Amino acid sequence: MGFQGKMHAENGVATIWLTGEVDSRSAHQLNELIVDAVSGTPERLVLLAEELTYLSSAGLRSLVFAHQKMRQDAEIVLVGVRPEVAETIRLTGFDRSIVMQEAGD
Predict the structure, then answer these.
(1) CA 75: distance to chain centroid?
(2) Does the pLDDT at position 80 exceed 90?
(3) Which of 42, 49, 56, 76 can pair with 14 through a Cys bridge, CB separation 3.0 to 4.6 Å?
């Protein structure tokens, strides 16, 4: 399955819906969404990841890219991360730089 994403920004919150797989072929699409999202200097970037089935190292670099592009006091929140994707994030220690929460919280 390929990657699909869409972004919406409102009231200081940029939200990106992630579907499918973020790998070396699709990471540039996520980076483009991130650039669009941070152009409005949001206080919070929310990544809805319930439908994200795979995150490669290239996808993880996209999350690091988002972290670098956001204001220092801004927050990145991943919502509904599947266990296999969460494991990739935890293994790198990047979970200490973002907030991961269950869907519906």
Answers:
(1) 11
(2) yes
(3) 42
Is 49 part of a structural domain of the chain? yes
Closest Cα to residue 13, out of 48, 49, 37?
A: 37
How many other C-beta atoms are found inside a 10 Å radius of the C-beta of residue 10?
9
| Torsion sign (Cα): 21, 25, 15, 89 | positive
Two tokens, residue 87: 């494991």
| Per-residue pLDDT tens over the stretch 1-42 | 699 999 999 999 999 999 999 999 999 999 999 999 999 899
Asked, for residue 1, whether it belongs to a domain, the answer is no
76: domain CATH number?
A: 3.30.750.24
